[in-house]
Write a structure and sequence with these properties.
Layout (H helix, E strand, L loop, with lengths): L14 H11 L6 H11 L3 E6 L9 E6 L13 E7 L2 E7 L8 H40 L3 E5 L5 E4 L1 H9 L3 E4 L2 E4 L2 H15 L5 E6 L8 E6 L7 H4 L1 E6 L9 H8 L3 H11 L4 H8 L3 H15 L4 H10 L18
Antiparallel strand pairs: 1-2, 1-4, 3-4, 5-6, 5-11, 7-8, 9-10, 10-11
Helix pairs in contact: 1-2, 1-3, 7-8, 8-10
Length: about 325
Amino acid sequence: MNGRGPTASDRFISDEMIDSIYDGLVAIRPAPGTLETIRAALRADAVVLHFAVAIGATASLVETVGQEDLTRQGNAGDCSQLVAAGEGWQICCLRAPEETPFGEEEDRNFRELAAHVRRAMRVRNGLLEDGAAVHALSGVIDQLGIGAMIVRSNGRMMHADARAEAILKERDGLHLIGDRLSAASAQEGRSLEALLRAVSDDERPSAAITITRPSGRPALGLTINRPPMADDLSTIGLVVSIRDPGKGLVQSADTLRDLYGLTGTEAQLTIDLVNGKSVQETEERRGISHNTMRAHLRSIYAKLGVGRLSELIHVVSSGTSPLAPGRDRAVSPPNA
């Protein structure tokens, strides 16, 4: 021993890696590039990060880099794994069964990396507790092609994204009177006010209402949700999503790949199903067999944490329901 401390060349984790971990993970949606850095450093075949969209939520989103097939149900159990977890997150490094299993040195290096991941996710959780979760939820909704609003229990508007503002400016069924949300139908307006109060008072976790439009166009669909971690809604408000069924709900396959870790084919199939196509119509449209469709559905259901087609449509269309539950949930064979 020469008594000197470790130099940069002695350390497994470089300053650049540390910067990547904190820059990439202290965000609403952790950056895939950070996971790729971890994957390369540990020579893993895949890295999977489960992370909550809001503090207190029982569900999580999933970000995956590397060999996606290793993360599917039934495959990961045969892999060599390194796992670390904390409040609202879990990270797992995988090596394929035919590869050399992770050794003691790699386990130590992973624990060193995981300590920084833990701190970064703790900072992220603090940001969510300060109200950033509301913007996360509205951001997810916005990416799915649904308007998002933050509304007080008395209907007063706190924030509306571009899609919601465009719908409100049409004044066709839903609009603002001053800064308060109002419906063209007096009866629907009273129902909307009652639902906002009920969700705000925690009498129900969420609510939905249909708003008819004087123009005769398809009715608007509103979903009202209380942020999972919110105790004081006076400063946070309720998350209200607004959907115009007259337009295709989901148009971007890239969005679905980013949000749920779907493959390109899975994303295209999901777009068809959520936008109203039946399973048979989707098979014909995409030129695939019924058995192939069933296989794709199994994978899609597993990634979104659902067990049937109606749940898939609800999760993607609402944007505010649990997006991907715990890893151990059983997924039933699709009844296609």
